[in-house]
Please model this.
Amino acid sequence: MNSENMENTYGNGKYEAVIGLEVHAQMLTETKIFCGCSTTFGAEPNTQTCPVDIGLPGVLPVLNKKAVEFAIKTGLAMNCRINAYSRFARKNYFYPDLPKGYQISQYELPICEHGAIEIVVDGKVKSIGITRIHMEEDAGKNIHEGGGAYSFVDLNRAGVPLMEIVSEPDIRTPREAAEYMRKMRSILRYLGVCDGNMEQGSLRCDANISVRPVGQKEFGTKTELKNMNSFRFVEKALEYEIKRQVRVLEEGGKIIQETRLWDSAAGVTQSMRTKEEAHDYRYFPEPDLVPIVAEKEWIDNIKASLPELPDAKRERFVSQYGLPEYDADLLTSEKPIASWYEDAVKAGGQPKAVSNWMMGDLMRLLNEENRPIEECPMQPAQLAGMLRLIDNGTISGKIAKTVFEEMYRSGKDAETVVKEKGLVQISDEAAIEKAIDEVLARSQKEVERYKAGDEKLIGFFVGQVMKATKGRANPQLLNELLKKKLL
Amino acid sequence: MKLNELTISELRRLLDNREIRPRDILDDVYQRIDAVEDKVKSYITLTKEHAYKTAEAAEQLIVANKASLLTGIPLAVKDNMCTKGILTTCASKMLHNFIPPYESTVTKRMGEQHYLLVGKTNMDEFAMGSSTENSAYHTTKNPWNLGCVPGGSSGGSAAAVAADECIAALGSDTGGSIRQPASFCGVVGLKPTYGRVSRYGLVAFASSLDQIGPITKNVTDAAMVMNVIAGHDRLDSTSAPVDVPDYAAVLGKEIKGLRIGIPKEYFVEGMDNEVATAVRAAIQKLESLGATAVEVTLPHTAYAIATYYILATSEASSNLARYDGVKYGFRAEGKDLLEMYMKTRAQGFGAEVKRRIMLGTYALSSGYYEAYYKKGQQVRTLIKQDFENALKQVDVLVTPTSPSAAFSIGEKTTDPLQMYLSDIFTISINLAGVPGLSLPCGITSAGLPVGLQVIGKHFDEATIFRVAYAYEQSTDWHMRRPQL
Model:
């Protein structure tokens, strides 16, 4: 066994995990999937409803064509086959937030099948199969607070279009699962079909997970994990569940097929219902809707409208800008970040320098304020402008940090910031020499020690001169002159 | 003659000639209701005030020469079609207080013409039944014999038309629920092609089988109502974007040379002799009018009832899941959610509805789905092909509507299978999705009407009307009225 596999095993190398993810993505259509109600988030309870989505007697669903288009878009982006003929089915179960007593979903004939997406873990690319993508309607929400013995039901969300994206059991580690979710979110956001917000629940993830002895072909008994509402929780919950399953097996026990909930506060998964208690959904074809026929011309048009996707963009960033995979991967994870990058390069910024500034200072500042890059006060061309000032020696790389922060806060050009704050680099030999002389004059002891061989003290002299010039001395020049003087 | 005894076409002429006003018809209709409703019990809700108010608007339209086919005509509507602001119960305790905030497409289209809604008619609960005895409110009586059922499930609509308690009515037909009561009550009833009339606002029983259609005193009126309610509706994805011809225009065209198929499977042992005789005589009459009768075969007929009761109940089990006490309608209190669900559904639904929900739930359950629902769908395809094949050879099929005339109240309530068999000649037509019309073709020695069923090709209601009209004009069965 090679070392790579060792990393993906558990229980002292005896077990490996088999994970498949079911992702629910709320589509960003303006109206619901089977009626004309708005899908806007956060309205007063039951104000975005009509007879159709609250399931009054006698009403009928009418399919939102945009939702189908979004599903096809997603299928194409995930390399799926788009089924020319697909249809809706009813999934029957009783729950107060499900007004009709059934959810309109797809079962036997989903809109997309047999796709794959690529993830990068530790610099290695791995393909994760997509079993199917299907469309369905979301349910409402039960509210248990404030009603005493009663609960309330809010049906604003009922009928919001969802895609369920089911992966093959190709995932072997929690890391891969988290990377898969990140890639999923990235693709969905590139396409503009889902905002990918896991905290608000517009992107949700359930996992099927089992462990098996390394080398065994058959899958072990699986559990289903729910309630993992962040990438971090996906990873932690799976990590916990793998260890739990290994422990059960090691102790001679059996895994029970069940649904378990991730409790993020306690950091554990807990049993919700067992297979015996599982629903029989009694799926059958939805008779109120006609089958969906996806004409080739329609699919071709959608295909032609697809944007450049994260993987293609990443590869292009590597080849076109000479960036390392790592940089390219990060910069292409979000379309606005990638655009910002390219705009800065187009404005004359050196590709690797732009990448460094973005991945370092810019991301740090944005993250501190939880601000999306679209709302960044500094414009890409302004970063390129600052890089020019470094190149032509107007400011040092060190000063640039200060300049950058000020540009970020104020949205002003680098030249303006440098002028206003008096940050122009001192490259005048005479001026620097004068500063050096002053420092050396008042540091006799240090000079003697330096000359006696304590060469580390060069840093002390540089620091003193920088302090005297408020950091504006050209560092290269300073070094040269200082060494000359100390000879 | 009282105005309530006239037909739509007769009243249309009188109204447009300003010989009468809409409210004059209403006066006679409600007078009649006052006189006979206690005996017949056609209605669940009467909408008199609403009707008189609409009559004023209708009168203004007529005076302004802006009248349409149904302007000012008093019609009844089965209580499973949603009427905005008007109680719509489906004859169920479950919806005893349900007032829809929206209008069904059919009543909306009629409403745009200012028809006058007389009331909402009684039916078998959720349209499940063949006698109207399954109403949670009361049993409707057959106007020809008050000891007999009016048929069902649109028994209230058929009885109201036969008893002149309205001029015409709307019914719905899932397995014969328009045609069988029309036959039992001696009136005309059409189940249109599946997809011809919008189901929006029709409280669903079995979505892939339900169709709304007219119940009228004669063929002309049925054609007139269809001219108003038929046609594609954006709100019903299963309504077909197929052009609707002017049905009135085909009436009176001769039927010489038309080929009429007689399915041999529909003339079987056990069929009531008088019914068989009446239908055979009707076929001869059609031949005498120049049509050619040909024997055809519908080989899968024997499987129709079983197929129907698997598919219809499967869909019903799902369609009726929404009645859970959470949002509207009847709710029984329970100590927790599950008990509230169970008590609500145990108390809110009647026995037949519960029987069908259980049958359908069973047929869809994992482990049984393949053997029942899926098999049922496959047989349904075969039945549909039977009709397509037969209708390639002929223009229409002619059969009895029901194997017997109206039966006695209580006669079949203890034997569901016997009750189901009364739809044996109508059920296949719903499975195939083709249109079928029942019209009077005789009276038994007991004084009960017999119905003739004319079945057409998909979306070819026109040929059915043509044949039915030709037959009607050469007989006087449609002129017979019950004595009440």
Q: What stands out?
A: The interface with chain B takes residues 51, 54-63, 90, 92, 94, 96, 99-102, 153, 280, 282-284, 287-290 of chain A (CB under 8 Å). Chain A is about 40% helix and 20% strand.
